Task: inverse folding
């Protein structure tokens, strides 16, 4: 609303094509190949289906449970033929399991290469929430080629790309995989609709997704959890006795205007909107029959629609306000901002400690601990030990496993005394030849994974001085998405690289981010679509980051298309670290 | 052509350059001469499964050459290949190179197969590929590790059975790792798992971090706990091993079995800190089983339990104990004091939990007792390890009446905080007394305007103000005169 839109901003390509493509493929697979006429969603309970020709939609995360389904059927004397259609790709491990379980013949497999789900005009999701855990925690690269293929699909429909920038190991691998697929396939000359691509690994910036979201769309996601662009509003919001499911995207005119706004601005906007609506309705009084007729046929429907949407978002805002007040959100945000700023850390620690002691939300406690560790480059051993002990007391000792995972990923670590590590590394480097040293560095990498957040913050001006006034009505930079307290590192990197057309001048920054940056150009491609930039997040991105990129786009006359393995937020990210799915 | 020294010394057939330097045309130019050398040295291997002699090497080299040229031309201008760390060097196991050469040499018959494969009548074989060799030995061929990996990535027919020597297997694995396709890496690992003894496989995985992580993840997913434990053991990753075994307690439903399982865990090589936690876990469940079967009936009747205490965290157990087992002697396992001691619960944590439980029961006398300490002269004083303003918060959340609240508001040291809390929770006495003690007539007058006229608070303020001279000594000349 308060933003001025640059008139020269380019138009986005039409992604509905992707949906059609995927749907047609599936229909082809089902109808032509297998004669299927019904789809079943598989859950972890016995399935009741009547037709012999059923089809399973199965979450790949649980592929190893599939034989149980078949064997359960067999135990009941039901002998059937099964077809698994993997999407987006086959798992050799799963096929092997079917073979080992002796059900390979009963079960045959196929692939539905459905890579990309357009969630909105500028958001495309691979819908792979498991990517984050699989790659960053387990070190499993099973989705790397998927990411490459997704990029390949976009390239062949909306490309050719002229520049690709990236940072992170996985980004590099996805780039390589994409490049190979381009070389394998034939290239058609066409008008490029997307010029530049930026690939970024989620672990380049883990601080941003762990911050509380305060932009409307992000807040809705944090509180109600948006799934596939769809949210279920509870009765609390709808002020009726049932919850309703709502699509949240640019088609929703009210939502579209508030989605990127700081929450503090939303109420004002909604009430203004409500007043306007009232005025429009009020026009009726004093109308003659003819005027009334045109009003009913032309305006009323739109007004009614707007009325419905308005009341929905007002309800949601009120409900969120209530929830957040109850949770002492103000104090929580204060702690977060102090952590980002590196200010009054002892106070923050005692706040977190009390949060744990009072057994308030486990994920929230974990989030704060991780933020503390990431911003401070790890916890002092004494603090680590004490906070871990208290956490286990409050939330259950089995979270030993969670701590081990968080440590492995570098989300929550103990500070290493002094420079022990660097000393150790250089000594190792001297002793053995290059090959082995490379391998050893790999082995150390999880230990050495320092976030360097403070230094990065200073170098990139991520944290504005707290004594400066920040007018949230007229945001001056991307920091507005975190109440002016922090510019998301991920988005700042993108801004800097685009500005510099590469990584030159950012050497210190990339060194602190563990390197793996690249910038490559295809000299042959001359394109006018340089100002349409595809940003691919490997491991998920948050709605706040998307809002920040939209802001950046408006400022610079660019259009960003966000491709992500999944939409994430702090809760999803941390829940994926839990080991309690026995 | 010149070769790296180490390769010459080890006397490896130089044809490996076909793959290693595939990217550069320099390699292509050198191939023809190499091929001839190779021809003389190694003709034993050139027999396919069917016993047929395989296609000529020079043919296959020409194939390679042309493919390099065609892709090379594209690459000159289009996106460049970037070094993708941390790909391991292909030759990380020194002896694994020869096989690459062998594979290359046999490309010929693959070509003929792929042609026949295009034939619709033969396509039916695809899903049934992994059948006994006899069924497909007529047409399956030997692909190089690189080709095999590529075919696997593309979902085409492939065969791993021909990778029989350790070198071949490792070369295949390294090639899969270099292709950055986890799906293929795992597939190769499954094959290696079946065809190598675990000792050998473990040994080779130590130097292959990426493959190792895939292997661990695979074993985790299919639940091969035992093998995983052996793997960690062989690599001296004892803490991982201990945690991995401990993780299994999540699968034990029955509480007695789970307790025994945890007891068994105590001997695992955890880090010292974790060992303490696991010990606690065992003790906790042991206690919970005892507590679950004890307690006095009347309190349970009055406040029925929402859930069993089994498998709850320590703090929840403490809360439960403060709720249902308060006042039991310290020696009893279910008493709060005993739990506090056993699990080394901090004063602060104990107080918070106990306060919550007793306040919930509206046992204000117990709440009072929590803070009361006696000094050696027998005077009592209220102390708290956490600020009294937090105590007030907690009490208020548990619907404590004003009479109780104001006692604690009074104990807040910071005067401003005290007044703001008192105002928030309408503790009039506290406010009035504070202003009186501060000798702040102005504020008292202001506050008089806020309370109900004629109420006891109102009268109290009136009284103080009229007695002001006696109470406060002199009336300050700056203060305005009272208006009644």
Result:
């Amino acid at each position: 609303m308060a933003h001025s839109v640059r008139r020269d901003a380019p138009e986005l390509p039409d992604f509905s094509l992707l949906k059609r493509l995927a749907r047609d493929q599936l229909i082809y697979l089902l109808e032509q190949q297998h004669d299927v006429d019904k789809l079943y969603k598989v859950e972890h309970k016995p399935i009741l289906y009547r037709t012999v020709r059923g089809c399973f939609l199965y979450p790949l995360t649980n592929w190893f449970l599939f034989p149980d389904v078949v064997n359960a059927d067999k135990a009941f004397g039901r002998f059937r033929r099964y077809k698994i259609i993997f999407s987006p790709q086959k798992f050799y491990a799963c096929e092997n399991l079917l073979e080992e379980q002796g059900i390979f013949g009963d079960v045959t497999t196929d692939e539905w290469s459905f890579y990309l789900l357009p969630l909105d005009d500028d958001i495309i999701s691979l819908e792979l929430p498991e990517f984050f855990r699989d790659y960053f925690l387990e070190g499993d690269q099973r989705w790397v080629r998927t990411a490459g293929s997704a990029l390949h699909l976009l390239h062949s429909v909306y490309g050719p790309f002229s520049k690709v920038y990236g940072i992170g190991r996985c980004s590099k691998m996805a780039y390589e995989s994409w490049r190979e697929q381009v070389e394998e396939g034939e290239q058609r000359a066409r008008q490029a609709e997307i010029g530049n691509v930026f690939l970024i690994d989620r672990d380049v910036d883990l601080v941003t997704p762990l911050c509380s979201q305060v932009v409307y769309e992000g807040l809705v996601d944090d509180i109600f959890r948006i799934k596939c662009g769809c949210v279920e509003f509870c009765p609390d919001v709808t002020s009726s006795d049932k919850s309703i499911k709502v699509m949240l995207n640019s088609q929703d005119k009210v939502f579209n205007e508030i989605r990127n706004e700081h929450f503090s601005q939303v109420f004002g906007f909604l009430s203004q909107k409500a007043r306007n609506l009232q005025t429009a309705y009020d026009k009726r009084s004093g109308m003659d029959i003819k005027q009334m007729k045109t009003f009913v046929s032309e305006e009323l429907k739109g007004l009614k629609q707007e009325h419905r949407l308005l009341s929905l978002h007002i309800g949601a805002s009120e409900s969120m306000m209530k929830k957040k007040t109850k949770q002492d959100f103000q104090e929580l945000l204060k702690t977060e901002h102090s952590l980002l700023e590196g200010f009054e850390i002892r106070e923050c620690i005692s706040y977190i400690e009390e949060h744990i002691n009072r057994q308030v939300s486990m994920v929230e406690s974990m989030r704060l601990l991780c933020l503390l560790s990431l911003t401070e480059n790890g916890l002092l051993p004494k603090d680590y030990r004490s906070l871990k002990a208290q956490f286990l007391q409050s939330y259950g000792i089995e979270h030993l496993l969670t701590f081990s995972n968080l440590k492995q990923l570098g989300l929550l670590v103990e500070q290493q005394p002094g420079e022990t590590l660097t000393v150790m590394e250089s000594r190792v480097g001297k002793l053995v030849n290059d090959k082995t040293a490379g391998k050893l560095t790999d082995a150390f990498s999880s230990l050495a994974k320092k976030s360097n957040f403070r230094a990065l913050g200073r170098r990139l001006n991520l944290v504005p001085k707290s004594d400066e006034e920040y007018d949230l009505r007229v945001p001056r930079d991307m920091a507005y998405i975190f109440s002016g307290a922090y510019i998301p590192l991920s988005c700042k990197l993108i801004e800097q690289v685009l500005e510099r057309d590469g990584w030159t001048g950012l050497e210190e920054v990339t060194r602190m981010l563990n390197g793996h940056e690249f910038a490559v150009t295809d000299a042959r491609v001359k394109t006018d679509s340089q100002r349409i930039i595809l940003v691919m997040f490997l491991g998920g991105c948050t709605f706040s980051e998307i809002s920040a990129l939209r802001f950046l786009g408006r400022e610079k006359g660019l259009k960003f298309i966000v491709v992500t393995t999944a939409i994430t937020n702090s809760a999803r990210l941390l829940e994926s670290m839990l080991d309690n799915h026995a | 052509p010149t070769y790296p020294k180490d390769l010459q010394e080890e006397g490896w057939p130089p044809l490996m350059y076909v793959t290693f330097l595939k990217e550069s045309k320099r390699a292509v130019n050198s191939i023809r001469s190499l091929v001839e050398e190779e021809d003389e040295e190694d003709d034993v291997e050139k027999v396919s499964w069917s016993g047929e002699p395989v296609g000529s090497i020079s043919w296959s080299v020409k194939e390679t050459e042309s493919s390099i040229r065609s892709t090379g031309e594209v690459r000159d201008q289009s996106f460049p290949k970037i070094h993708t760390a941390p790909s391991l060097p292909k030759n990380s196991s020194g002896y694994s190179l020869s096989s690459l050469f062998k594979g290359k040499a046999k490309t010929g018959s693959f070509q003929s197969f792929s042609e026949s494969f295009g034939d619709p009548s033969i396509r039916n074989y695809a899903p049934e590929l992994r059948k006994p060799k006899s069924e497909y030995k007529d047409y399956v061929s030997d692909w190089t590790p690189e080709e095999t990996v590529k075919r696997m990535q593309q979902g085409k027919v492939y065969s791993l059975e021909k990778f029989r020597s350790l070198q071949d297997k490792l070369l295949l694995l390294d090639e899969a790792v270099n292709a950055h396709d986890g799906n293929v890496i795992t597939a190769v690992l499954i094959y290696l798992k079946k065809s190598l003894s675990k000792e050998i496989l473990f040994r080779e995985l130590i130097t292959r971090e990426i493959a190792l992580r895939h292997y661990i993840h695979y074993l985790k997913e299919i639940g091969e706990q035992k093998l995983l434990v052996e793997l960690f053991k062989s690599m001296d990753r004892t803490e991982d091993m201990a945690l991995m075994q401990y993780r299994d307690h999540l699968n034990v439903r029955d509480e007695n079995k789970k307790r025994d399982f945890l007891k068994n865990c105590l001997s695992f090589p955890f880090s010292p800190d974790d060992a303490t936690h696991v010990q606690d876990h065992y003790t906790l469940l042991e206690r919970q089983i005892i507590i679950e079967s004890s307690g006095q009936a009347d309190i349970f009747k009055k406040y029925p339990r929402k859930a069993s205490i089994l498998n709850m965290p320590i703090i929840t157990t403490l809360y439960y104990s403060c709720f249902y087992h308060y006042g039991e002697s310290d020696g009893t396992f279910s008493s709060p004091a005993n739990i506090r001691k056993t699990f080394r619960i901090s004063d602060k944590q104990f107080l918070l939990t106990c306060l919550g439980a007793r306040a919930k029961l509206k046992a204000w006398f117990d709440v009072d007792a929590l803070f009361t300490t006696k000094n050696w002269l027998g005077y009592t004083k209220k102390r708290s390890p956490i600020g009294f303003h937090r105590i007030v918060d907690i009490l208020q959340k548990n619907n404590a009446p004003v009479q109780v609240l104001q006692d604690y508001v009074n104990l807040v040291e910071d005067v401003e905080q005290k007044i703001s809390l008192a105002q928030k929770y309408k503790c009039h006495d506290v406010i009035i007394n504070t202003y009186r003690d501060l000798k702040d007539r102005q504020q008292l007058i202001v506050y008089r305007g806020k309370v109900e006229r004629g109420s006891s608070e109102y009268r109290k303020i009136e009284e103080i103000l009229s007695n002001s001279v006696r109470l406060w000594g002199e009336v300050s000349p700056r203060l305005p005169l009272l208006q009644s």
Q: What stands out?
A: DSSP finds 24 helices and 13 strands in chain A. Chain A touches chain B through 67 residues (CB under 8 Å). The mean pLDDT of chain A is 82. The first strand of chain A starts at residue 40 and ends at 41.
